[in-house]
Amino acid sequence: MDNLPGIVVAGASGRMGQMLVRTVLSSGKARLVGCLERPGHGWIGRDIGECLGGAAVGVLVTDDPLAALAKAQALLDFTAPAATVAFSGLCAQARAVHVIGTTGLEAGDIAAINRAAHHAVIVRAGNMSLGVNLLVRLTQKVAQALDADWDIEVVEAHHRRKVDAPSGTALMLGQAAADGRGVDLDAVRDAGRDGITGARRRGDIGFASIRGGDIVGEHEVIFAADGERIALRHVATDRAIFARGALKAALWGQGQKPGAYDMMDVLGL
């Protein structure tokens, strides 16, 4: 086991963090060598296995990322933008693969992450699942084939606790549609319609977000023209698909040259 890549999980107490921990522990392909939480969290100093309601696994939760990364080959990070930017710099110092599933990143955050990618492998994606990344590629192809007479709408649904909208996956899909059409997404993005908005502008890419219950993730791209409609849809029912994709990215990143990558690179799409 000592020759397997060592993995650190950030935000280990969160729903995705717990799923990532369980996925690494059960994979047989990597070693869990660290779990991070914010200072003052109740899990600090406790064994992560016991925190999750099971037997001790010999890994204590810590608030010291430098110490954790010193013995790691990769960090799995589904946290918050400010934390992710800080982790990118630390991973660059440690030459550890940084797998980022954090959403809600602003342009300045992404610029800082890309600077860190000069020194480490960074894999960043709004969604780590194989199915969603295939949907992204299909969206680009369909948008490329259809002109602006076809309206494009991206509809996403998530659980009530999600704090950002549209989802990172919805933005991936919107970007894929814009790339297919050869346009700037920021110039054609139409989100948050409310009240008397006027008629839909030709060529716009619309976004709609639904929040409720425990929805894991649903994404649909609608291409609508007069008399016909095409819908591409992906439904996630288990967060484990994202955790497995993140671990796959961490393993793929071993031995790669420093740089900014995404799941398309990992999956060879």
Automatic annotation (TrEMBL):
<feature type="binding site">
    <location>
        <position position="159"/>
    </location>
    <ligand>
        <name>(S)-2,3,4,5-tetrahydrodipicolinate</name>
    </ligand>
</feature>
<dbReference type="GO" id="GO:0008839">
    <property type="term" value="F:4-hydroxy-tetrahydrodipicolinate reductase"/>
</dbReference>
<keyword id="KW-0028">Amino-acid biosynthesis</keyword>
<feature type="binding site">
    <location>
        <begin position="168"/>
        <end position="169"/>
    </location>
    <ligand>
        <name>(S)-2,3,4,5-tetrahydrodipicolinate</name>
    </ligand>
</feature>
<keyword id="KW-0220">Diaminopimelate biosynthesis</keyword>
<keyword id="KW-0560">Oxidoreductase</keyword>
<keyword id="KW-0520">NAD</keyword>
<dbReference type="GO" id="GO:0009089">
    <property type="term" value="P:lysine biosynthetic process via diaminopimelate"/>
</dbReference>
<comment type="pathway">
    <text>Amino-acid biosynthesis; L-lysine biosynthesis via DAP pathway; (S)-tetrahydrodipicolinate from L-aspartate: step 4/4.</text>
</comment>
<dbReference type="GO" id="GO:0005829">
    <property type="term" value="C:cytosol"/>
</dbReference>
<dbReference type="InterPro" id="IPR022663">
    <property type="entry name" value="DapB_C"/>
</dbReference>
<comment type="subunit">
    <text>Homotetramer.</text>
</comment>
<feature type="active site" description="Proton donor/acceptor">
    <location>
        <position position="158"/>
    </location>
</feature>
<keyword id="KW-0521">NADP</keyword>
<keyword id="KW-0457">Lysine biosynthesis</keyword>
<protein>
    <recommendedName>
        <fullName>4-hydroxy-tetrahydrodipicolinate reductase</fullName>
        <ecNumber>1.17.1.8</ecNumber>
    </recommendedName>
</protein>
<feature type="domain" description="Dihydrodipicolinate reductase N-terminal">
    <location>
        <begin position="7"/>
        <end position="128"/>
    </location>
</feature>
<dbReference type="InterPro" id="IPR023940">
    <property type="entry name" value="DHDPR_bac"/>
</dbReference>
<feature type="binding site">
    <location>
        <begin position="11"/>
        <end position="16"/>
    </location>
    <ligand>
        <name>NAD(+)</name>
    </ligand>
</feature>
<dbReference type="GO" id="GO:0050661">
    <property type="term" value="F:NADP binding"/>
</dbReference>
<feature type="binding site">
    <location>
        <position position="37"/>
    </location>
    <ligand>
        <name>NAD(+)</name>
    </ligand>
</feature>
<comment type="function">
    <text>Catalyzes the conversion of 4-hydroxy-tetrahydrodipicolinate (HTPA) to tetrahydrodipicolinate.</text>
</comment>
<feature type="binding site">
    <location>
        <begin position="125"/>
        <end position="128"/>
    </location>
    <ligand>
        <name>NAD(+)</name>
    </ligand>
</feature>
<feature type="domain" description="Dihydrodipicolinate reductase C-terminal">
    <location>
        <begin position="131"/>
        <end position="267"/>
    </location>
</feature>
<feature type="binding site">
    <location>
        <begin position="101"/>
        <end position="103"/>
    </location>
    <ligand>
        <name>NAD(+)</name>
    </ligand>
</feature>
<dbReference type="Pfam" id="PF01113">
    <property type="entry name" value="DapB_N"/>
</dbReference>
<dbReference type="GO" id="GO:0016726">
    <property type="term" value="F:oxidoreductase activity, acting on CH or CH2 groups, NAD or NADP as acceptor"/>
</dbReference>
<dbReference type="InterPro" id="IPR036291">
    <property type="entry name" value="NAD(P)-bd_dom_sf"/>
</dbReference>
<dbReference type="InterPro" id="IPR000846">
    <property type="entry name" value="DapB_N"/>
</dbReference>
<comment type="similarity">
    <text>Belongs to the DapB family.</text>
</comment>
<keyword id="KW-0963">Cytoplasm</keyword>
<feature type="binding site">
    <location>
        <position position="38"/>
    </location>
    <ligand>
        <name>NADP(+)</name>
    </ligand>
</feature>
<feature type="active site" description="Proton donor">
    <location>
        <position position="162"/>
    </location>
</feature>
<dbReference type="GO" id="GO:0051287">
    <property type="term" value="F:NAD binding"/>
</dbReference>
<dbReference type="GO" id="GO:0019877">
    <property type="term" value="P:diaminopimelate biosynthetic process"/>
</dbReference>
<dbReference type="Pfam" id="PF05173">
    <property type="entry name" value="DapB_C"/>
</dbReference>
<dbReference type="InterPro" id="IPR022664">
    <property type="entry name" value="DapB_N_CS"/>
</dbReference>
